[in-house]
């Protein structure tokens, strides 16, 4: 059998994997604070007996696209957008600390502040709990103040501070829950990151996804055409094999 079929098959398989990454980015084009996943092809030589004349394709997702998204004003008091570099610290379901740029914060029935269901952490590393039915304001440094219903303006009180961090993006990895975490050089999860006082937020605003729907659509079309090309190569290799068998049968 012509080994071309294996080369083409690897290309087709990895193209499908890349299409899945692009489709996920496309599906999150309107998700607040979402960072697109990067996808790259690389050639992997086939080791074995004989000359190294064949390579297969491998698709990798080395990192996310950390380019900032567009900040839009919403006027909602619990909406915050990271101004420049930085992240919001939240608590993952397993209790670990994760980081997100999704600033559409919500307050549940117990007063717990959440981001996409994850508890938002304060500077002390504990989840933030705000007074119910209070008028909340968030300052640019993440300080949260609350004014109870019917209270006088001069009774405005500080009730907590968002934990804002700014770890090196090269050491951040995205988990299956969509949260980013700091990784060690060995790829293991590192401990919590210390708060960074230089990180600022824009209150009453949200950072949109940095995924371009147009670019994602073009990439999906390109992947579809690339897959068709690889399948054509497999079909051609099969036709060549059949033709060779017919010639050999005549001898």
TrEMBL record:
<dbReference type="Pfam" id="PF00460">
    <property type="entry name" value="Flg_bb_rod"/>
</dbReference>
<keyword id="KW-0282">Flagellum</keyword>
<keyword id="KW-0969">Cilium</keyword>
<comment type="subunit">
    <text>The basal body constitutes a major portion of the flagellar organelle and consists of five rings (E,L,P,S, and M) mounted on a central rod. The rod consists of about 26 subunits of FlgG in the distal portion, and FlgB, FlgC and FlgF are thought to build up the proximal portion of the rod with about 6 subunits each.</text>
</comment>
<feature type="domain" description="Flagellar basal body rod protein N-terminal">
    <location>
        <begin position="5"/>
        <end position="35"/>
    </location>
</feature>
<dbReference type="InterPro" id="IPR019776">
    <property type="entry name" value="Flagellar_basal_body_rod_CS"/>
</dbReference>
<protein>
    <recommendedName>
        <fullName>Flagellar basal-body rod protein FlgF</fullName>
    </recommendedName>
</protein>
<dbReference type="InterPro" id="IPR012836">
    <property type="entry name" value="FlgF"/>
</dbReference>
<keyword id="KW-0975">Bacterial flagellum</keyword>
<dbReference type="InterPro" id="IPR037925">
    <property type="entry name" value="FlgE/F/G-like"/>
</dbReference>
<dbReference type="InterPro" id="IPR001444">
    <property type="entry name" value="Flag_bb_rod_N"/>
</dbReference>
<dbReference type="InterPro" id="IPR010930">
    <property type="entry name" value="Flg_bb/hook_C_dom"/>
</dbReference>
<dbReference type="Pfam" id="PF22692">
    <property type="entry name" value="LlgE_F_G_D1"/>
</dbReference>
<dbReference type="InterPro" id="IPR020013">
    <property type="entry name" value="Flagellar_FlgE/F/G"/>
</dbReference>
<feature type="domain" description="Flagellar hook protein FlgE/F/G-like D1">
    <location>
        <begin position="81"/>
        <end position="146"/>
    </location>
</feature>
<dbReference type="InterPro" id="IPR053967">
    <property type="entry name" value="LlgE_F_G-like_D1"/>
</dbReference>
<feature type="domain" description="Flagellar basal-body/hook protein C-terminal">
    <location>
        <begin position="203"/>
        <end position="247"/>
    </location>
</feature>
<keyword id="KW-0966">Cell projection</keyword>
<comment type="similarity">
    <text>Belongs to the flagella basal body rod proteins family.</text>
</comment>
<dbReference type="Pfam" id="PF06429">
    <property type="entry name" value="Flg_bbr_C"/>
</dbReference>
